[in-house]
Amino acid sequence: MPTRKLLAGFTLVELVITLVLLSLLAGMASTSWNTLITSSRHRQMVNDIHLMFSVARSYATDKRGLTTVCPLSETQRCVDDWSLPIAVFTDKNNDKRPDNGKIHRLFRPVPDQSTLTSRTAGRGYFQLAPDGMSRGTMGSLIACSVVPGSATQMSYLALNIGGRLRVLNDTNGDGKIKLPWGPVLTCPAS
Questions:
Q1: What is the pLDDT of residue 52?
Q2: Which residues is 169 bridged to in the sheet?
Q3: pTM of the model as a whole
Q4: DSSP 93
């Protein structure tokens, strides 16, 4: 009597279990991928802000003139809305407007799902003197990047008297940074 060969294949139960496992793995990979992308964009935003202040400091010392860093309104005046493009320009008459309408460099450091907020007592601008030092009252920026259902990326960028940025990062993803002198900063509500 001839023997019949069994056909190789998957049972319905094996197929369902495989599909469930694949969908779980895909869901975890998607969340991890979004977190990785947000983290990368946040680091790039902080690096772009560093570059922006380095360019402004270099420009101030090279041109030997007061240099302002701020977002500009449609009328070319400094405003405290850091979602707008940020301009670096000479401001010898200190009117918070580009001299002769000339902007040295324009930056757009804030990606989607991120915010940049100033802590400048409502001024909304930073200035660097011809010697590269910070002019007037110092200030800081808070950079936040959020992915729904994931950790918040947060950085505190403070301009020191020497015209350089100091950065503190939220290392545990809770959206809070405790400053060395006591205050706790959080990401502003969007």
A1: 95
A2: 155
A3: 0.80
A4: T
